[in-house]
Amino acid sequence: MTTRILAAGDHFVTSELLINAIEREIPGGASCSRLTLPWPTVPFGRVAEVDEASGSEDELVAALQGVEICVTQMAPLTEAVLAQCPDLRLFCIGRGGPVNANLDAATRHGVAVTYAPGRNSTATAEHTIAMMLAAARRIPATHGDLLAGQWRGDYYMYDQVGPELEGSTVGLVGYGAIGRKVARILGGFGARVLVSDPYITQDELGDSVELVQLEELLHRSRIVSLHARVTDETVGMIGAPEIAAMPQGSVLVNCARGALLNYDAALDALETGHLFGAAFDVFAEEPIPARSRLLSTPGVVMTPHLAGSSKETAHNAAAIIAGEVGRYLRGDDLQYRANSVGEPAGQARR
């Protein structure tokens, strides 16, 4: 019997990309149907008990009837969806973490959940470097002035110019797949790189990167970039005391998660001149509220949570998902399992 698969794509990781990747992995081995979710034209949000999801439970339930495998980036895997889709056995999420899945409920219902770590690490690392440069060299502000017909020579005054990456000390808070690539790129610029991460050792870093405690990293770094995951311990980890510990005229970058940073504290530091600049791709509230201080504080560079957006990221996500589908159908262990449902998915197929 041919396995039924739902490709619940969106306008970034499209259903077509997902299906093409699956067909390359298992030619003729599955029957694929499609569902298109509205992200990113409609922002993701909370759906029932899961976060950062797109679409509704009802439309997903309707599309999953008789389906054994769902491949997606943003579809909400909730208790209600699981309860109404008894044929579902594998739910593959093309993201760095399974935030849009209720893992406990999936385990109870015997549904294996996988995710796609590292799919956007290169895109996010490159974007992080771009944001460092944009904030340090005031590229958006000067570009905007030129568009407005202003040629401002005062940007060349000593107090108005920022640091170079070469020779600067850059601190990375967190050293996962993205942090490692940022460190490698910074090495090419000639920067000195410090890392604070409680889950790694100096032996994992090599000679070109120095492992330090967060307090030391903040005191020594001219540029600080956040790369930690959000946990109970890391929520709000960079606030007013931490920013005050950074050198006068330094730059703060967050392309990780909005929950890591106290944005009011960062904006206060920009207004007093303690921070030279700040660059944010993620925010405490998305989209940014119309009257937010972020929109009026000088020295802020912003992008709308798109650091991980590249064509390669979308293809990587589809390929990682397809690999998991292939393992499931062959009865192999899943490589990026997010939960445990007993025996390896697909074991009964042997």
What are the main properties of this structure?
350 residues; 11 helices; alpha/beta; disordered C terminus; elongated; Rossmann fold
Characterization of this structure:
This protein is an alpha/beta fold and 350 residues long. The relative contact order is 0.14. The chain has two domains: 3-119 and 310-349, NAD(P)-binding Rossmann-like Domain (Rossmann fold), CATH 3.40.50.720; 121-302, Rossmann fold (3-Layer(aba) Sandwich). It is built from eleven helices and 14 strands.
Short summary:
This protein has 350 residues and is an alpha/beta fold. The protein contains 11 helices and 14 strands.
List the domain count as a whole number. Answer: 2
The CATH architecture designation of the largest domain is 3-Layer(aba) Sandwich
Distance separating the two termini? 14 Å
CATH superfamily of the largest domain: NAD(P)-binding Rossmann-like Domain
Q: How many strands appear in the DSSP assignment?
A: 14
Question: Helix/strand-derived class?
Answer: alpha/beta
Shape: elongated
Could you state the order of secondary-structure elements as H and E?
EHEEEHEHEHEHHEHEEHEHEHEEH
Q: How much helicity do the residues have? A: 25-40%
Q: Give me the CATH fold name of the largest domain.
A: Rossmann fold
From the alpha-carbon coordinates, what is the Rg to the nearest angstrom? Answer: 22 Å
Instruction: Quickly count the helices.
Output: 11
Q: Which CATH class of the largest domain applies here?
A: Alpha Beta
Strand content: 15-25%
